[in-house]
UniProtKB/TrEMBL annotation:
Belongs to the caleosin family. Residues 94-129 form the EF-hand domain. This is EF-hand domain-containing protein. GO terms for molecular function: calcium ion binding; monooxygenase activity. InterPro entries: Caleosin-related (IPR007736), EF_hand_dom (IPR002048). The lineage of its organism: Eukaryota, Viridiplantae, Streptophyta, Embryophyta, Tracheophyta.
Amino acid sequence: NAPRTSIYSIVKGGERGISVVTARTSSSIALPRVMKQGHALPPVRCRTNKSRVAMMLSRRRSPVVASLQLPPVTTLLFLWVLSCGHATANTDIANMTALQKHVSFFDRNKDGIITPIETFEGFVAIGCDVAYSRDSASSVHAALGPITSPVDAPLPHINIHINLIHRAMHGSDTGALDAKGRFVPQKFEEIFIKHAKVRPDALTSSEVEEMILANRDPLDRRSWLAPVKEWGLTYKLASDKDGFLHKDSVRGIYDGSVFVKLEEKRSLQIEI
């Protein structure tokens, strides 16, 4: 039996990184692990030119990246992807699945492709601190970039392609999204029927933990961490002052609409 894991432990805790080694230099980029207990992602090999990247550093520091105060080699990753052109994809919101709508919030320029800097900006927009946003953007793209990139996409496969996001579906989840990322109302209702004990339309932190443990697939230990991180962040950002994560907020997580509300709320707080 696996030990119980608090939903706060992943949100607040840090993890050691893995190295991503470039093909022509000996520099390594520290990225957070996505899996524990030795199940790290394989190194992502990047084709770059040391002098070209150095020139980018001196000429293309965007205000967002400059404000991060990142180690130079980590900044390389963000600037490299930010400055490299990529083809756009179709973004027909009306015909998107719930999962595509969920991730499209992070597609800040709405071109159908999410870069690490866009993911970073998205996390900051919903209220995450800079360090968490930076580390999450690195780990998310290291994990999902190669999975969601079409075979003809330019290297490195670090950007996330929204039309292929269903490839990133993982086990040990609630089943509220099917294999294609479409919303399944019956499975969504089961979340609250099974686990909402204190209030029928909301979840407490202990009920969220109970749900995560109940959904764990004993034959797929690699999928255990993702729900802890996802639901941990959801609870931290979307629960009310009394500690309840409301049903409409959870529904909004699945289609990304709650992210828009969180960004608007944060914008108002900054203005005040």
